[in-house]
Amino acid sequence: MASKLFVLGLAVVAVASPEARIPMEQGVPAWSDATSSWSKLDKPSSDHPMQMVVSVRVDEDRRALLERVFWEVSDPDHENYGKHLSRDDVTELLGVPEERAERVRAYFTSQGATSAIVSPNRDMITVTMPVAAVETALDTTIHFFGHNHHKVQLARASSRYSLPLSIAKDVLLVGELLQFPSLREKGLQGLVGGAGDWPNACSAAACNGLVTPAVLAQRYKLPNASGAANPSGNNMAVSEFQGQYYEDSDLSKFGDSCHRAVKVDANIGKNEPGAGIESELDIEYIKAVAPEVPLTVLYQGQYSLLDWAKNLNSMSDPPKVMSVSYGNDEGQQSSKEYMDTCNTAFMKAGARGISILFASGDQGVCGREGCGMFKFRFKPDFPAASPYITSVGGTDFLNAGIGEETAWQAGGGGFSDTFAIPDYQKDAVAAYKINKDANIPPQAYWNNTGRGYPDLAALGGTKTPYCVATGGSFTGVAGTSAACPVAAGVFAKLNGLRLAAGKSALGFLNPFIYKNPSGFQDVTHGINKASRNYGFTAVKGWDAATGWGTPDYEALSKLVMASGRASTIVV
Q1: CB–CB of 392/456 below 8 Å?
Q2: Helices 277-289 and 480-500, interaxial angle, to 10°?
Q3: CA 493, 495, 500: angle at the middle one, nearest 5?
Q4: Strand runs (DSSP E) across 246-327, as ranges?
Q5: What's the rounded Cα separation, in Å, for the pair 389 and 508?
Q6: What is the set of active-site residues?
Q7: pTM (predicted TM-score)
Q8: Which residues pair with 153 in a beta bridge?
Q9: Which CATH code of 3.20.20.100, 3.60.120.10, 3.40.50.200, 3.40.1170.20 fits the domain covering 234-562?
Q10: Can you list the residues of the chain whose pLDDT is less than 50?
């Protein structure tokens, strides 16, 4: 405790003064228009528990080393391609001093934390504290916030937060204070009366005209689902949040009707019996594509990218492919520091050989915030616009039958306002911008120097929704939340081919994808403007509506076997 000296007559009195505090995260405050879907409610009780993820500072030279290794093991043309790291290797590479992590842990414990668990990599600490202790430790005020369209309440900071100087130097940020999740639009669920003109291969009459496993198999040239072998060690996962559970009876109903073996092989986090349409969509369709690959469901009650990434990177034997159908606009993130911290976590996963795929969003170029009335501007998605993950956009069939596709008008896509164009896509993005057919929107609406997304796409539009078993019956569901697990299932199958041949898993996919555009069925129709006047047009080659297009498994199966060389994976 610092002190100031005052002379009163002949007496010298020492008066204690509080230690200087450093404001953290100078980005979007919790009460701004960026979170207009949420309204501030009453204060929680003082003993209401809050769980937060504290990001411990990683030295810049160590983060740079991580990034270098990440690119090397992900580049099919590099000699280190596929030489993935173990969890302990990542911990050693990051080199976060044990005493630094302990100082941070000890601070929160001294302030009243009931639990403070340091992750294996020592760069994240999960802290549980009562609200009163949170407010004191972080010099902030906590309120409940309620969603305007969903029955969800979250405890969040209604003012900025700070840390004492002595501990702030060891901390990048404290998660789950300013971040608000985006909840799925109800309009993309419960869609009936699909317009597809093809035989219904499912025995459920409600699937008529909707996308089913047989439709995906035909369009994406998947091999016969029955009898497919899976090498030891090949696995995949989907992530679920906010009460999105599943019913085994729904999975069985889907599998029996649509002739696919659908089951969850492992749960991390609890699953309570309950039909969550988002969860059941993910499970049913990643297994529709890759029924032979074991599936894990990672469940978390709150949507927190930091907590999710911490849990994934803490696993000693993580899934090799991860599908995540959640996201927000970049502008809805609490700070660039928050996004950079997430990117570090994505690099850690990629360095370990994990392929992470995120849905690109369901609101076209204007995102969840909308483009605005007074200053019209596109709103890119995060994490979909992160350079360190693979982003999956959405398509519809161009005509009534199974065949050529068109960009779904509400599929997320565009250019990041935060992250520069990565090397792996510089040529593709440059070619798109000079393509005379692209009809590029006015420059004032988007960032010409930003990372372009999505990287690829799959069926996800509202013209022909997916047939999903949920709540004991079948219904139609659309969105890039459908496209993402389908694309993830394709790459899980491709990993199986490589592992069976003694090669490494694919890991971070984008360098491979951009070097092998012939593995995708180009989409050259449509524009993702949603209901607006402007959007990005799908053209020949890469575009900011559908990426390189949709998977061609037959072509990809040859390309992945020719990529890199046999490599022993360190796990």
Answers
A1: yes
A2: 40
A3: 100
A4: 266-268, 295-300, 321-324
A5: 7
A6: 278, 282, 481
A7: 0.93
A8: 146
A9: 3.40.50.200
A10: 1-16, 30-31, 33-35, 187, 566-571
